[in-house]
Amino acid sequence: MPYVIGADLPDMPAGLRFRALLDQPGILGMPGAHLGIAALLAKQAGFPALYMSGAAMSGTMGLPDLGMITIEDVCFHIRQVARSSGLPVLVDGDTGYGEALNVMHMVRCFEDAGAAAVHLEDQLLPKKCGHLNDKKLATVDEMCAKIAAARKARRHLYIIARTDAVASEGMEGGLARAQRYLDAGADAIFPEALVTRAMFEEFAARMPGVKLLANMTEFGRTPFFTAAEFEAMGYAMVIWPVSVLRIAAKAMEGLYASIKAEGGTHKKVGEMQTRAELYATIGYHDYEALDASLVKTIIPMGMPQDR
The pTM is what? Predict the structure, then answer.
């Protein structure tokens, strides 16, 4: 049954469960899952933690990934993913939605919604996907202030500092920023948009003992690597951030085209999850049984007295 109601909810705070996963051997692979149904399917596939991409959430809302969505928009997605799956969730915090006080507000909101971890990036608004050109960077001091604020506000949230600096400041600049971010209180580092195996290996080799996150996004600047390859390069975590949105959007595009061309869905039924499969995924019959166990008919034993 999905983790939604009652005693089946995890007792340990999400951030501590996330840390425990990182303490286990092997790389922690987190597919993007920004909707409750996606979270349940990823859990069904065996993933122990999930990632929520700002680009995926924005795209689902019909918006570009330019820092336009709000904290409450993201919390809406966090709540459904955390509640439906019960898994620890790493959330894209973009630039923190403002300066230090805004970052503190974000941290509290994300924790309350059920997030386990967040990553903050050192871009300026309007921020861009890390694999696009002409990114504008915040100063190191500005980013360190945000990290320190997040650290001060958190109760258990795991804090990952993302740096987009390698593209404009080179490997030395990216590494220098990463060290400053660790000194400011980050738990791990996310070097974004590295473009070769050698760059991934060098970044990891020069940050021994540091937990590092790799981003395996499609149609970007990073070549395809598997989770095992990233682990061999020295990375503790890997995300596939927007893959689920891309595959779903392509399927929706094909469905709508088929309905328009064929006058119905009959040509696409074989590609659909059946009603039985959907009900099994969302625990429909478990909820029915739970409802039946709680809602019992009460038979009146006498007439009310009208006085």
Answer: 0.91
Question: Rounded CA gap, 68 and 204, in Å?
Answer: 32
111 is catalytic: no
Of 144, 215, 231, 235, which residue is the catalytic one?
Answer: 215
Is-catalytic flag, 133?
no
Concerning whether 129 is annotated as a catalytic residue, the answer is yes
Q: What is the mean pLDDT of residues 156-180?
A: 96
Confidence (pLDDT) at 304:
57
Asked if 112 is an active-site residue, the reply is: no
Using an 8 Å Cβ cutoff, are 33 and 73 in contact? no
d(CA 66, CA 83): 27
Domain spans of the chain, in order of start: 6-243, 250-294
pLDDT tens digits for range 225-263: 999 999 999 999 999 999 999 999 999 999 999 999 999
Cα radius of gyration (the chain): 22
Architecture (CATH level 2) of domain 6-243: Alpha-Beta Barrel (3.20)
Verify whether residue 65 is a known catalytic residue: yes
pLDDT in tens, 70-121: 999 999 999 999 999 999 999 999 999 999 999 999 999 999 999 999 999 9
